[in-house]
Amino acid sequence: MSLFTCFLLEKLKLAANLRNQFCQISICTTIATGLLFWGTAEPLFHVRNPPLAYADAENKNVFALSALYMHWSILPYAIYTLAGVAFAIGFYNKKLPFRIGTMWFELSKNGKNKTLYNIFDGLSLFSLVAGMAASLGVGILLLTNGVARSFNLSSNGYLMAIITILLVGTFVISSVSGLQKGIAKLSSLNFALFIILLFFFVLNLNYTEVLPLVGKSINHFFTNGFGDSMLYFSDANKQWATEWTVFNWSNWMAWTPITALFLGRISYGRTIRQFINVNLLLPSLFGIIWLSIVSGTALISNKLNNNVLTDFLQVEDGVSSIIFYLINELHFSSFLIPLFLLTVFLSFVTAADSNTDAMSNLSTEDFFDDDTESPKNIKIIWGVFIGVLAFVMVSFSGEEKSNGLEGVKILSNIGGIFALFILIGVAINMVIYLFKKSDVKEDS
């Protein structure tokens, strides 16, 4: 444990020499929305319906929190980082076009295979549209439920439509305003709100219960995480793995190709080591801290209050209500709920802003210059399309307590299928590159 702590402190020290804004952008444009929604709901699902391998476990909370570390910390950022580094090398070092196929610079013979480029671009745009719509659906569900509870309104399709319009309108306006003006400022504000929320959770933390749970869960994650990631291949545990591990990983993969374009584009002037620190190590550390405090609080609150939170899972809109019940138990809840809603709003806007920018650049013919912006009308078209798709899926998919969530999962799984094959190629491409350049210096 002490070696692990020293490792984390070393990485924090390295990060002090980097531009803080780059790290904030990386955190807020990737999995921030998911942490806010699934960070409290998902572990309770694992406690109520764990995989068969842990059905008789004495402390299901340990597995539940460990599963969140597996799904929401190192892995997604590792996927984004690998693809982002591959694109940055191809785009900046090899001067290849702003295309998905640039991540396959070795396999595509430095961009000579144009057909491969066109296929990749189309599949990646389809994947991200599905992934973004799924994440927007999560944001719509959270905000609709939160606004309805806060202002005593009916959580219906009309309120969903209004929130969808506000979300889409905001991230489209931000994207149209340009990379530095929109995304950079939103990320800084969004990250500050995350820290404020985390501060209030720490003030209310039940240290005697949460800290031992975190210690045991981190130990379980590092000792049993690989086995837990393989539960899909066990018939008895396959359903749980399909509903959670496959769902989460599909979502990461759906976002990755386009997210890699964005992260790679803003990495100009940095080394590979700096890129890894800012896009993998520090965001993963932040995710682990957030999950330890917020998810740990949810699990302990459920344990000490006769499983009141897991009971919410059986109630219509209960999944998106859990976080608000939890916040109501904290001091200054009347202030924290509006703050949480604003954080959710900005989290999706920031993520959608960055990826709408990358999608529009990809849709612009001969986009080579990293300082230019794609046409505004393309950004508007993509933003509106994604918003309509997300609204349809959360409004008309599923029934009763699962309303909306089934649509989110369907979109995530569809998006991840195509991206998986692209990412396998990215991994092979980087292995070939590293073997060919075993003595290569660190480039950005």
Would you write up a description of this structure?
The chain has 444 residues and is mainly α. The chain has one domain: Amino acid/polyamine transporter I. It contains 16 helices and no strands. It has helices spanning 2-15, 20-28, 32-48, 60-72, 74-93, 114-151, 157-176, 179-203, 207-229, 238-265, 272-304, 308-312, 322-328, 333-362, 376-396, 405-436. The two termini are 32 Å apart.
List keywords for this structure.
about 450 residues; mainly alpha; Amino acid/polyamine transporter I; 16 helices; about 0% strand; globular
Please outline the helices and strands:
Layout: H1 2-15, H2 20-28, H3 32-48, H4 60-72, H5 74-93, H6 114-151, H7 157-176, H8 179-203, H9 207-229, H10 238-265, H11 272-304, H12 308-312, H13 322-328, H14 333-362, H15 376-396, H16 405-436
Structural class call reads mainly alpha
Residue fraction in strands: under 5%
N-to-C SSE string, H for helix and E for strand:
HHHHHHHHHHHHHHHH
CATH architecture tag: Up-down Bundle
Structural domains: how many:
1
CATH domain class name: Mainly Alpha
Low-confidence stretches: 1-5, 14-19
Please give the alpha-carbon distance between the first and last residues: 32 Å
- CA radius of gyration is 21 Å
Largest sheet report = none
